[in-house]
């Protein structure tokens, strides 16, 4: 686990300057590394996916606790450093994928293999990466994510609040929140302008996933979140589909005058089973 001094020395040795555009804020607090690993409850046979390993401060801790680590890093300089320092791990325990984590959300891990995710997510890709991970054939059994605090709060938004979003619907349909731990911006170098949060998520016993078309429609409704659902349904859905949706609202005891942010998640799940081709 790297301290601030060790991190600065390594960056100087590599002649590396963190790129703000890539969200390269390196974790320098060993306590947060230990907390992340503890929240993951890793066992010797666990397979772990890590996003943006950077200088490997979390990677090192994960390799000590788990069976294999699959990591994806988009910076060539950092990839070379990681390969040099961890590429000789015995029994093929460290797999490093060079590329964009949004395109390769599980870092090349075999699709059917059970796994956990433990990651210090770059702020810029948190939402698109989460969308990508929720589209995988096999969902991680647990995710321990270090996120921008505002992003974590959006993921956990409650029904009826302004923070409610399509991503909150998709995530909360598949995962239960086990814990959330605040993390100061001072735990990183360079220091970001916002605080973070360590979020632990457990896959539901029967997770509900949405198809690409269902996600499209839900997002479509949220682009006009100030309008009532009955008006949005009439505007965007074909007549037969609109009738089926309105019937679903009535049968569920939900007023069709609510706005998208106030529709219960279970209702979005029911609506997802109905045909929902948009007109426009």
Draw up the topology in text:
Blueprint: H1 4-14, E1 26-27, H2 30-40, E2 47-51, H3 57-65, E3 68-73, H4 76-86, E4 94-98, E5 116-120, H5 126-133, E6 142-148, H6 149-155, H7 166-174, E7 175-183, E8 188-189, E9 196-203, H8 212-222, H9 229-236, H10 239-251, H11 265-272
Helix pairs in contact: 2-3, 9-10
Structural features:
280 residues, alpha/beta, Rossmann fold, 2 domains, seven-stranded mixed β-sheet, 9 strands
Name given to the CATH homologous superfamily of the largest domain: Vaccinia Virus protein VP39
Oligomer: single chain
The CATH architecture of the largest domain: 3-Layer(aba) Sandwich
Largest sheet: spatial strand order: 4-3-2-5-6-9-7
| CA gyration radius, whole angstroms | 21 Å
Beta-strand content: 15-25%
Beginning-to-end CA distance, first to last residue? 52 Å
* Overall form: elongated
CATH fold node name of the largest domain: Rossmann fold
Number of strands: 9
Query: What is the helix fraction of residues, given as a range?
Result: 25-40%
Structural domains: how many? 2
Which stretches of 5+ consecutive residues score pLDDT under 50?
none
CATH class of the largest domain: Alpha Beta
